């Protein structure tokens, strides 16, 4: 009998994942036989020093990059080797993305950017989605900014629009790549609290790549990578515990 990702309570998983760049003498192994899952309704932080493979892992899990070997599942769909068209549809319908650089469409206003996943899918929001978007707009303090374009917003406001867009369709899985990297500490804390609430109150699965111990302390689980391998997998940690672990790992490296 085939054990599925759902049976394991996972929103996504990778198995024996390896990613290499280059060949021969110049080959770089960014990921080395990694097997890990993102649990449903859980906020997971992925940490590690620069070059540890954390962004590569997230990009492959999200179907933005392909592995050299191994398998990737989103829910019970094996996306390894899936064609571009199918992958694009799957990402649009089941995954939300929050990037450090916001990636908003400059010609659209805030309302248009938030509704973009629906527009790309060629459909109008359902009543439930309309209510969710209204709740996000109010929670994120964007009500007075709906007709503004991205260039008229602060960095924090732009990141909030990106979060509203990522959560608008209640995707199974949200990937956040250094989501607080361009924000001041107060706005960063607000963003992290929102992500934590999305998983805790709405059952969304969130995987966040970060190098910031304070950001990672908001997560239910912290996965540490080193040299392309998972070196630790810990339940919720304080910023101090995370910092201590990372310093010890650097000393032992």
Number of domains: 1
Tally of helical runs: 9
> How much is the average pLDDT?
90
- Total strands: the figure is 10
Shape by Cα distribution:
globular
CATH-defined topology: Rossmann fold
Could you state the CATH homologous superfamily? P-loop containing nucleotide triphosphate hydrolases
Distance between the termini: 41 Å
| Strand coverage percent | 25-35%
Which spans have pLDDT < 50 for at least 5 consecutive residues? none
Integer-rounded radius of gyration = 18 Å
Structure, briefly:
With 253 residues, the protein is α/β, with parallel strands linked by helices.
Topology of helices and strands:
Layout: E1 10-21, E2 28-39, E3 43-47, H1 54-61, E4 69-74, E5 77-78, H2 84-94, E6 95-99, H3 110-114, H4 116-120, H5 127-139, H6 155-167, E7 173-177, H7 185-202, E8 205-209, H8 213-216, E9 221-226, E10 229-235, H9 239-252
Parallel strand pairs: 3-8, 3-9, 6-7, 7-8
Antiparallel strand pairs: 1-2, 1-4, 4-5, 9-10
Helix pairs in contact: 6-7
Features:
six-stranded mixed β-sheet; alpha/beta; 36% helix; 253 residues; 9 helices
Describe this entry's structure for a reader:
The mean pLDDT is 90. This protein has helices at 54-61, 84-94, 110-114, 116-120, 127-139, 155-167, 185-202, 213-216, 239-252, and strands at 10-21, 28-39, 43-47, 69-74, 77-78, 95-99, 173-177, 205-209, 221-226, 229-235. The protein has a six-stranded mixed sheet with strand order 6-7-8-3-9-10. A four-stranded antiparallel sheet has the order 2-1-4-5, with helices on one face. α7 (185-202) links the parallel β7 (173-177) and β8. The longest helix has 18 residues, at 185-202. The chain starts with 9 loop residues before the first strand and ends with a helix. The chain is an alpha/beta fold and 253 residues long. It is built from nine helices and ten strands. It has one domain (40-64, 81-252): Rossmann fold (3-Layer(aba) Sandwich), CATH 3.40.50.
């Amino acid at each position: 009998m085939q054990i599925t990702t759902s049976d394991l309570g996972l929103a996504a998983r990778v198995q024996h994942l390896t990613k290499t760049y280059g060949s021969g003498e110049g080959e770089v192994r960014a990921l080395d036989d990694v097997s890990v899952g993102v649990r449903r309704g859980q906020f997971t932080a992925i940490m590690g020093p620069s070059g540890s493979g954390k962004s590569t892992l997230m990009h492959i899990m999200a179907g933005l990059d392909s592995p050299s070997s191994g398998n990737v599942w989103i829910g019970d769909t094996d996306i390894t080797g899936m064609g571009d068209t199918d992958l694009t549809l799957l990402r649009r319908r089941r995954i939300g993305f929050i990037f450090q650089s916001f990636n908003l469409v400059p010609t659209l206003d805030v309302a248009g950017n938030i509704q973009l996943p629906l527009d790309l899918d060629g459909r109008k929001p359902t009543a439930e989605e309309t209510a969710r978007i209204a709740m996000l707009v109010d929670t994120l303090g964007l009500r007075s900014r709906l007709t503004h374009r991205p260039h008229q917003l602060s960095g924090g406001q732009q990141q909030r629009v990106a979060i509203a867009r990522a959560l608008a369709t209640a995707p199974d899985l949200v990937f956040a790549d250094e989501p607080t990297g361009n924000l001041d500490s107060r706005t960063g804390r607000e963003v992290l609290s929102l992500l934590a609430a999305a998983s805790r109150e709405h059952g969304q699965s969130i995987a966040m790549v970060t190098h910031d111990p304070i950001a990672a302390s908001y997560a239910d689980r912290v996965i540490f990578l080193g040299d392309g391998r998972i070196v630790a997998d810990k339940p919720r940690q304080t910023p101090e515990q995370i910092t201590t672990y990372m310093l010890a790992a650097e000393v032992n490296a």
